[in-house]
Amino acid sequence: MKAAVIESVGRAVVTEVPDPTPGPREVVVEVAACGLCGTDLHILQGEFAPKLPLVPGHEFAGEVVAVGTQVTEVAVGDQVAVDPSLHCHECRYCRTGHGNLCERWGGIGVTTAGGAARYALAPVANCVKLPEHVRTQDAALIEPLSCAVRGYDVLQSRLGAHVLIYGSGTMGLMMLELAKRTGAASVDVVDINPARLETAEQLGVSRTAGNADELDRPEGWDVVIDATGNAAAIQDGLERVAKAGTFLQFGVADYATRVTIDPYRIYNQEITITGSMAVLHSYERAAELFANGVLDPDVFISHRLPLEQYPDALAQFAAGVGRKIVVVP
Ligand SMILES: [Zn+2]
Ligand SMILES: [Zn+2]
Q1: Which pLDDT belongs to residue 49?
Q2: Contact status, residue 12 vs residue 55, Cβ threshold 8 Å
Q3: How far is CA 45 from CA 9, 169, 284, in A?
Q4: Residue ranges of the Enoyl reductase (ER) domain (predicted)?
């Protein structure tokens, strides 16, 4: 079959690889589309994935075309979305309900062959059946949405919160859609790129700005979400949290990023600073939210490119082009 392969650090190609065959509790999914994200760039740079070559792609859905001998939950012809999380279920983190922090954490498309290919292998436990009205080529959005749902789980946001989001890329916009639906009193979005803010405005937002000063809210926001990973944005955001408010680190910063905090204010104003990592018990709910129209795929997916153009698609993503880029086998 045809597949994208990250052969070595900095080198991605599209080539022929053997078709997968399912183990007893696995299925083969014919991939309808596979999304690209920052994780794929990290893998290309030699981080995250211990073993190259690797077929990347952890954001995908499609049709089941083969099932293992002990699979009864799904059948050939079913539409499924695939949770890429591979937790060991044995370590202390798994056993205390924190599988996303598993000591032997793995992911389909990160530590095993993924969905940037005609076919992908998945444990049946990772497959979520999709209703017929869902277009599987759009359902690549469920995985990033499940990360956003996890972020909202961490926030435990109450009704009537004033929310400030840094970054209006795919993840910031997903947080925006969830904030609207979790009863925020207002949702403001900050981005230094005016073109990206246009999409936030199109989706419905209270206010947008290139700098939070323009929003003139000296008392701060109950919830501040960083969806950039950028040090300047994070530093600014930490200083915008209202009394009793929460800062969520949702964007992926570089390992070396550092910001300063104000311990007296954290104490005196009961500020919470927290983070959320990937997916935890949130994929199924993301699939249901997606099937119920929580976001418009035609807004979120800006580019649909053939799988053959995978290296170019990665380069476009790295250059910050558009929003979600998916490749179609
Ligand atoms: Zn991703
Ligand atoms: Zn574990």
Answers
A1: 67
A2: no
A3: 5, 21, 31
A4: 4-327
Q: What is the pLDDT of residue 254?
A: 87
Identify the nearest ligand to the CA of 325 by its number: 1
Ligand 2 centre and the CA of 163: distance in Å? 33
Distances, alpha carbon 206 to alpha carbons 67, 133, 179, in Å: 47, 31, 11
List the end-to-end C-alpha distance of the chain, in Å, as a whole number: 10
How would you class 128 by CB atoms within 10 Å of its CB: exposed for 0-12, middle for 13-18, buried for 19 or more? buried
Q: What percentage of the chain carries pLDDT values higher than 70? A: 100
DSSP at 108:
B
Measured distance CA(183)–CA(195) in Å, rounded: 27
- Which amino acid, 238? L
Q: Report the predicted TM-score, pTM, of the whole model to 2 decimal places.
A: 0.96
Domains of the chain, first to last: 2-129+296-328 (3.90.180.10), 147-275 (3.40.50.720)
The residue type found at 239 is E
Share of the chain above pLDDT 90, in %: 94
Q: Which two tokens stand for residue 247?
A: 């800062």
Retrieve residue 41's tokens.
Answer: 């760039």
Distance from the CA of 150 to the center of ligand 2, in angstroms?
Answer: 18
- Is the bond leading into 194 cis (omega within 30 degrees of zero)? no
Contact 319, 14 (CB under 8 A): no
Helix (H) / strand (E) element for 92: namely: helix 92-95
Residue with tokens 């859609």: 177
Q: Which residues pair with 12 in a beta bridge?
A: 6
Collect residues with CB below 5 Å from ion ligand 2: 88, 91, 94, 102
**CA of 303 relative to ligand 2 center, distance in Å:** 35
Minimal CA–CA distance to 35: which of 129, 123, 144, 127?
Answer: 144
User: What tokens does 34 get?
Assistant: 């596979």
